[in-house]
Structure formats: C-alpha cells, structure tokens
Amino acid sequence: MSLRLLSILPGIVLASLACAEPGYKNFDEPPHNYHTAPLKDRFTKLKADLESGRIPLDHGSEKAFIISLLKALDVPASSQMLVFSTTSLQLRFITPRNPRAIFFNDGLYVGYIPGAKIEILSMDPELGAIFYMFDIPTGSRPIVVERSERCVNCHTKEDTGFVPGIVIKSVVPGPTGGSLKTFRKERTGHDIPFSERFGGWYVTGDRGVATEWANVIGRYSGEEITKSPVQPGQLFDFAKYPVATSDILPQLVHEHQAGAANRILQASYRARTAFHLDKGSLSAARYAELDEQARSLVRYLLFADEVPLPAGGIAGDAAFKADFLAKRRAVQGASLREFDLRTRLFKYRCSYMIYSPEFEGLHARMKQHIYLRLREALSLENPVKDYAYLPAGEKQAIHAILKGTLTDLPAGW
C-alpha cells in the first residue's frame, strides 16, 4: 500500500475491536443520529414552500398534480417506471390494473399510485434516504407532508446493506396479490443478471434485453409456476399517468443508480462509525475494513462487473435520453452521462453518481482515499489487472472528465 494512501487515513494504531462497540448498522445512534440530525436533502429544503403554496402546483386532477410536482422537483416524467407487484407500503392500492409509477433524478425518487398518497425518497448527503408521504390535496386544501417512519423498516435491511437506501424488488406476482417467487434477494446493481430482474414490473420499448419476468403474472400449476402475460396498457389506461411508457432504459439506469447509492452510503456509514469510535486514529482492522470498502466501491463505480447488453444493444426512449443528458457535466464535450447502449450502458465506464449528494456527503478522508484508489485503477503507467477491460483511451477520457469536473480531488491527481 502506497505512502500516499496511508496518508489519507492516518494514525493507524494496533488495537482490538471491542465486541460491545456499536457497528455502522446502528443508524439511529451517534455519530449518525438518523432521526434527530438536521436534514440537508433537497426535498426537505422545499417542503415548507410546498406546504405553504409558495411553489404553485396544479390541483385540477391527480395527473395534473403529479406532473406539476415532478416539474417543481426537477424530476423528469420520462423516467417513469411502472411496477404492479405489492412491494410497497401502500400495497393495497397496487394491482396490474393500477400500477405504481416511480420517477427519479440523481437524488430524488417520487412514487405515484392513482388514488393513493405521494411517496418521496430524498437523498440526504450524510444520512441517506429520507422518506415522506402526503395526500394529493383536493380543491384549495394545503399539502401536509409527513416524514414516514415505517418506510425505514424495509429500507435499512439486507437489500440496502443495512443503511437507509434504495430497494428494488423483483418478484413473480400472483393473480390476487402477494409474491409467488422472489429473485435477487439482498442485491442491487448493474451486476445482477437480466434473468433475475423486472419481476412485477411493466417494461415497454426495446425488448432486446432479456425480460422474461416483466409483464407477467404467475399462477401455481402443481409445484410449477405458469406465466400469464399482462401487456402494458392492457389492464389499465396509460392516460392516468404522466407519460405512456415504462421504458427499459430508465429501468437499467435506475438499477445502476440504486446500486451505486447503496454502496456509497455503506462506505459513508462505515467511515463515519470508524472515525467516531477510534477518535480519528484508525485501528489496523478498521483501516483494512475501510480500504476494502473503498476498493469495492471503486470497482462498482468503474462498472467492473456490469452485465453486458445483448447483441444489438437497445434503443432507449428518446425523451429520457434527452432529459438525462441535459444534466451532464462535460469536458471538451465528453461526459459521464453519455450512453453507449450497444454493448454496455455508458460510453465512459465511470458512474455519474460520483456527483451525487450521497457521494458529496462522504467523510472527507474516506472520499480522498476513494479518489486515490480510483486514480490507481485508471493508471496507465502501473496498470491494475482488475481494470484491464478499460482501454487506455477510455481511462484517459475518464481521468480528464473527473479532473475537469471535480473540485476536491487530491493534489497531483
């Protein structure tokens, strides 16, 4: 390990870990204080203006309201994904005839079910996912937003790595609700085979990606599950929703983004716990733990285990492409948000989530350590075999983009 890396996480002391010490999973205890710490997420900052009416929204209909809310939150309607499995707190409202719509940008997720409450997941830079719910107001009634405590019950378990994060379920829904089979337990990210994704989700657009469990209801026939197709728009009217799509591309981006967010938050919680317990001087064991976390995160950020797209790639919804690219940070025209879609998701295999609120909120020394592991992975002079899949030109382009768009890189990076 280089002296430069050691300098980022200094003061290593040889000490045993006391068994009684709290771990990073104790998100409600110091130094995290999830439920009592001041909130810095984007939705919380807008909450008072929404409730007071200072942010005008269209109360003419449920659809008009959600469209105006998405616009106010800068969440593209083109990101719409429709899920009909009952994998939500408001499960009694969700059916193949009344699917739940999910919309997202880099740090905000909005859930909309016709006839039910609006759901918000907003990423706090340090705490992770903060959950809110509120009724769609009728007439001149004001919006009353409540922080949801029950959402945390599922969003801090194995699926997220025990930190407040994002859960994506893939199940075979039964005809009357419930799940007959569950895939990809405790896993989120672009490394999950397509054969284990999309269960309980409507998928529209290019179907080049294997989506054998999308648009399907299951029934038991003896001990076997037989599949019955439910085509998008067949049992429900797309006119109830902001757009008439549940495109494959937003779903692939969402999967990558959720995997990145959960891994970043795990690194954040682990680092904050370690520095708190060791009062800034890390034990050798904790240093090793954080270094392993940094290596794992860098591997994910550089798409080392991404499932390749099938031959011919995918097309992707044009509106979502345009909305996604509109947020790019470019260096000489090159950006981490450029799509490839022939063999992989992005042209430059380094995640745009390096600009996300949760990455920005990483413990400063942990972030610097991650940057140096990232620089190591992109090195042409001393190539790391784990990143041999990245051609020299792509490594150079990623390095240039990061150097031109990040302001807190280590000196000499």
At a glance:
This protein is of the alpha+beta class and 413 residues long. The protein has ten helices and 13 strands. It has helices at 3-8, 42-52, 62-73, 152-155, 248-277, 284-301, 318-325, 357-360, 364-377, 392-405, and strands spanning 81-83, 100-104, 108-112, 118-124, 128-134, 146-147, 171-173, 179-182, 201-202, 216-221, 224-229, 330-331, 334-335.
Give structural notes.
The model is unreliable at 11-20 (pLDDT under 50). The chain has helices at residues 3-8, 42-52, 62-73, 152-155, 248-277, 284-301, 318-325, 357-360, 364-377, 392-405; strands at 81-83, 100-104, 108-112, 118-124, 128-134, 146-147, 171-173, 179-182, 201-202, 216-221, 224-229, 330-331, 334-335. It is globular and about 55 Å long. Helix 5 (248-277) packs antiparallel against helix 6 (284-301) and helix 6 crosses helix 9 (364-377). A hairpin with a 5-residue loop joins strand 3 (108-112) and strand 4. The chain is 29% helix and 13% strand. Strands 6-5-4-3-2-1-9 form a 7-stranded antiparallel beta sheet, sandwiched between helices. Strands 7-8 form a two-stranded antiparallel ribbon. Strands 10-11 form a two-stranded antiparallel ribbon. It has 2 domains: 42-240, no CATH class; 248-405, no CATH class. The chain is built from 10 helices and 13 strands. It is an alpha+beta fold.
Proportion of beta-strand residues: 5-15%
Which sequence of strands runs across the widest sheet? 6-5-4-3-2-1-9
Number of domains: 2
The outline comes out as: globular
Q: How far is the N terminus from the C terminus?
A: 17 Å
Task: Count all strands and give the number.
Answer: 13
Radius of gyration: 22 Å
Q: Which stretches are low in confidence, meaning pLDDT under 50 for 5 or more residues running?
A: 11-20
Q: Number of DSSP helices?
A: 10
Average per-residue pLDDT, rounded, comes to 91
Order of helices and strands: HHHEEEEEEHEEEEEHHHEEHHH
Helix percentage range: 25-40%
Main beta sheet, described? Answer: 7 strands, antiparallel
Q: What class, by secondary structure content?
A: alpha+beta
